[in-house]
Amino acid sequence: MTWKILEKLTQPHHKMFTADTQIRIHYALTDQMGVVYHGHYAQFYEIGRAEWLRKLNYSYKDIEAMGVIMPVVDIHSRFLRPAKYEDLITVRTTLKEMPLHHKIVFHHEIYNEQGTLLNTGDVTLYFMNAKDMKRCEIPAILKEKLAGYFETGQ
Known about the structure:
- The chain is α+β, with helices and mostly antiparallel strands.
- The protein contains 4 helices and 7 strands; from the N terminus they run αβααββββββα.
- The protein has helices at residues 3-14, 41-55, 60-65, 140-150; strands at 17-24, 68-69, 72-79, 88-95, 103-111, 117-126, 128-129.
- It starts with a helix and ends with a helix.
């Protein structure tokens, strides 16, 4: 069973919101061996989160216009297999749980064109008031938009 089919089978049952983003690995992302340098994976996660948000018809710019910023406070990454020069990778960004209070946790999986899992990562961000840099609740409009993906029977 390929990972694309697996997503369609598991997503409605587990109540999550997922977005896939493709990135072509260019030369500047690789080391002398033609393998993606490990430090770039955080950037891949960031690209995936930005596109995940766009799938909800929002952008980080929109969230910032609400007076809310979203700094990364924790990141974990597991390297299973290397991504290489010229690979077309898919960054799967999933929100598995409805964000509560000030925290949102994104789960990332990176696959190559053959559907082989290369990397996994979890990134935690906080919703913070841009003016006083204090934690705040998830913006109501974003919470409302996400609620439909996590309610029973959806």
